[in-house]
């Protein structure tokens, strides 16, 4: 079995104010996760704003250094251990790729979007010019876009949904072991969100990559996930297979989240009364 993702004793403490009135804020509080599988999986981390889920994503992506603890991806420690065994940035990005919440912040308005894809293919994947163009074309085709429709265009020439698909294509180019997607549909028109969600499901199999899906939306988490971790105040309060967690929640906070989801079933029941 491959260790898809493992966090051990992961803590992140921020300090607000100056000495002597320094207030510690525990964004992550002893987070322990372990997902082992020989097949790619989608793991959702759900919770309200301020629960710590985005901090967890940033630590896994090495955008934030943890106070303590470590992260293992694809059987290799990538966060929390210094020295010889920790992969360098390029090697790390061939294993872990990000997709951010706002695609317009992921691309500079002064650069064409295809230049980012080409750079990923040459610098991370280490392909030559022809190989890089082939990889870019293949990745764009996988998300329903054509290279000729993307080439030479700037971010403001795309809709939010289109640009997020370009972000996904960019993440796919190195064929990473895991993609960390932080609220990837929250900035997209509601009518188009399921396009991205269904895309993740198909790409999981096509590219054999696992996905860490950070979200506050339990409905999409239930639809897309193999596993769900529920976070509250920097801690994981419940974790398990998605259907088990959401059909038979054991923690009061998980039940509270589920009760907050509006359902058509309840509406129909009220109409019958």
UniProtKB/TrEMBL annotation:
UniProt entry keywords in alphabetical sequence: ATP-binding, Nucleotide-binding, Transport
InterPro entries assigned: AAA+_ATPase, ABC_transporter-like_ATP-bd, ABC_transporter-like_CS, Oligopep_ABC_C, P-loop_NTPase
Sequence ranges assigned to domain ABC transporter in this UniProt record: 5-258
PROSITE patterns (alphabetical): ABC_TRANSPORTER_1 (PS00211), ABC_TRANSPORTER_2 (PS50893)
Keyword hit for ATP-binding: yes
Entry superkingdom: Bacteria
Protein known as: ABC transporter ATP-binding protein
Organism expressing this protein natively: Reticulibacter mediterranei
